[in-house]
Design goal:
Elements: E1 3-8, E2 18-19, H1 23-44, E3 52-56, E4 62-67
Antiparallel strand pairs: 1-2, 1-3, 3-4
Length: 80
């Protein structure tokens, strides 16, 4: 099973990675992580937060990005 690394703002913040069946599973995991982190930062009153989670493979190649704004409810993203 492939190993994916979910780095916060392209920093090597996930040194161990997670074995997941495919890239879509890694994207879902990144979105869940983004929601959890964003909720915690809101509770803590953080002013400056990371803007994205970068999904990388074992070789370090970037496979995708989840922006924090993508996990907000539609009304808060400015969409109708």
């Amino acid at each position: 099973m492939p190993r994916y690394f979910l780095h916060i703002d392209e920093l090597d913040t996930d040194p161990e990675g997670t074995e997941l069946p495919n890239l879509e599973s890694a994207r879902q995991e990144a979105m869940l992580s983004a929601r959890e982190m964003l909720a915690e930062w809101i509770v803590l009153g953080a002013e400056d937060i990371p803007l994205k989670i970068v999904i990388a493979d074992e070789a370090g190649a970037v496979l995708g990005t989840v922006h924090m704004r993508d996990v907000l409810p539609r009304a808060l993203r400015g969409e109708t």
